[in-house]
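EI: anyone free to look at a 969-residue chain?
SC: sure, send it
EI:
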Amino acid sequence: MSDENSTTSSPTADTPAYRYTSELAQEIEVGWQDRWDAAGVFETPNPVGPLGDAELVAERGEKLFVQDMFPYPSGVGLHVGHPLGYIGTDVFSRYKRMTGHNVLYTMGFDAFGLPAEQYAVQTGTHPAVTTDANIATMRRQLRRLGLSHDTRRSISTIDPDYYRWTQWIFSQIFNAWYDTDAEKARPIDELIAEFDSGARTTHDGHDWADLSPSERDEVIDDHRLAYVSEAPVNWCPGLGTVVANEEVTADGRSDRGNFPVFKRNMRQWMMRITAYADRLIDDLDTLDWTDAIKSMQRNWIGRSHGAKVHFASAAGPITVFTTRPDTLFGASFMVLSPEHPYVDELADESKRDEIAAYREQAVGKKDFELQDDTREKTGVFTGAYATNPINGEQLPIWIADYVLMGYGTGAIMAVPCGDERDFEFARKFGLPIPAIQQPPAEWFADHGIEPGLDTTNWPTAYVGDAAYVQSAGTPAGTEPLDLNGIDNTAEGIAMTNAWLEAHDAGEATINYKLRDWLFSRQRYWGEPFPIVYDEDGRPHTVPDELLPIELPETDQFSPRTFDADDEFSNPESPLDRLEDWVNVELDLGDGRGVRSYRRDTNVMPQWAGSCWYQFRYIDPTLEERFVDPENERYWMGPRTDIRPDHPGGIDLYVGGVEHAVLHLLYARFWHKVLYDLGHVSSIEPYARLYNQGYIQAAAFKDEREIYVEASEVVEEAEIDGEPQFSFHEQPVTREWGKMGKSLKNAVSPDEMYEQYGADTLRLYEMAMGPLDASRPWSTRDVVGQYRFLQRLWRNMVDETTGDCTVVDEPADDETRRLLHKTIDVVRTEMEALRFNTAIAKLIELNNHVTKLDAMPREVAEPMVLMLAPLVPHVAEELWAKLGRSVDTDGSITYVEFPVADPDLLVDDTIEVPIQVNGKVRSRMTVAADASEDDLEAGALADEKIVAALDGGTPKKVIVVPGRMVNVVV
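SC: here you go
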């Protein structure tokens, strides 16, 4: 700060009054944070609306929207691992303000969810109270870090003014359907109008005019993007709620609480995200995301091309999906999931008890167990057969638990010659394994068997492509299909699909692993649904003017929980108990007047609030809409000036890779619905995604394998070169892991502020390594960046008087050249988010200046400007001491970032290696533009080369200008 008194700290007897100490750093930092707030330095204008200032928008320059994945407000506050991404986005935002950008940068809080509710259950304190306190703590910590957020735009998902619009968006989704012809969502009223006019007919062919109102409602509800369904769900008795597929761990337990999860049929809200499967995959090509993240989303959606094939049976056609219809000639049996609806009808009377027993033991297994390919195959023959449409053969129908009802159609055609699981099953139960492809000779040699189609010798299935054999047939009343001799799989698939479609035996189709999104939670601490049910149990959205539907007050926050293994228990939401809130009299504006309704007693999942928060950052106080269209177009509209297929969305979105599927997929789905309905101009929410790394820290376990508090561990003397550690005088072992509460290795940023100041913490976290890489934390290493700031301070400030020591004399040529090379590198690295290499160049420049008699102003000012995004507080203070804050409205924030002089980036002289027969024997310094003759003459005159030639004459001299000289002897 420019006021000299503001930089004084309490000196000790041997500490100069103006030395850059932790006390002085804190005083500088808090003072500048207060000034920034008072002046509204980081307030960002919109083109229109409550935060609108068109003149300032034009003055600031090109727009840039930077956003962090917003945090959950934990009761323990931040540790130093949390701000890694936040510091990175702040450095980038500050840099871009200085390069002529209008930057939207703020922070909100994803504040609904299970942790706050569980804490409320334990303590009896309402979740709103603890959550508000946690948000206050995190806001204090983030402010203290010097993050340049526009605090006017900060939101919290638990604010009724916020979740009013979450509920409104849900209503929009509920009142929409997906038109597969138009490949977009449309308002449900348009679907009703098409039925009324006769332009659209019902799936079952019934005349719309003949349907009762209730029957019409049922048809319409079956089309909605948000719908209630009796469907298999993941029931977690230990939590007392259902959880989404994505919230179940690989070993079949809840990701929160680690309780067992069971498959159950329950009536729940679902989101028809599957309607958008193709667009969610195809539009990934327009996004600036890593290939790894795109692959994770593609794999999760799991689009696969294949065919549906219909096998006739006594119970009706059994339909299977296969990616390889060309292998139908190799099918020798069928397998149904134990839950398949045809099992009871197909089962022979003599098999019913065996099937019932098998079903009972299969129900107790988790999906991850059933998909374990190393598990011994089990199954039961139903006694029934199905007809292979391609050759008329009768295939025995089995049930087996390795076929899941939730995937595909719950039925497979087994081709044991080409599938390992089917091969093992066939071998165990003595089923045929007809070969339909001729494996190459190398395959037989690798397995030590004679080539041939007798599969009784085969030790395993052949999984690969080869020419078809034994793949021809002519079922009664059909045209023949003959694949024999064809060695092109794509051709075989195309021929088979054409035959199936020509004979009504199947059709080419696309299958997906993605399932509709389970959207109900039997909790209290979440967004209430804007839904009421009539006397027939049909759902209706409440009118927009009645939003928000606020959470009712209660002191009973927990759903009814059960024994963790009680899979047949039934959910009971806390809201179910609040009859006065549940039962309401409303006029829904549908012409039926005031009627009695019952509210939905589930709440939305925590994902809901984070699906759209970028829009509310744009217009946090707008009451008429969730975002103003003009502001949305400005901040998030497609940038066709960048590239023709730009999808729009946030310019830089930073967060952890753990959100690669869940949050990102859900948010993209909501966004696309809003786009289809005309509410937003952007096709995608996040144009560029950047995944920051993690800060890892040492964690310690005692002899019981229990983590102990890392801050209380003492390092002992080494034994055989290995470090030893103790906790309360008991030996402990060290490991490395992600910093956090569970490993008891968290370091509070408050501790770092007190010991070194926020600027040192910022600089250390950015200097530790590339932003997208994980890195180990070492409190002892923080001091290195602290000392750099001290040296920087001493180069410009007299530690005794506090006066600026910068001189107005010109810099020497070497210093000036180094300065401009530093500017060039720092600009490049800042643009690429490689802050660690930018810091390294700035340290190099500062070390060079330390050797000078005094810091020249022509170096000091650009150096401070380059450091301003990284260490904004000390940069502001030095800028003020340089006397420049008066010229820049009191802050360095919007001062233009230095630009390198291109003439000073070219060296006058260069060092050229001199080789003799390809080996470097000497080096010479020459003019950068030295001619080939000059280089040759200089090389032959070099004393080391003269000695190497020993009076001889070189055969030839090879000169590569600017690179090297090679003397051949």
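EI: The radius of gyration is 35 Å.
SC: 👍
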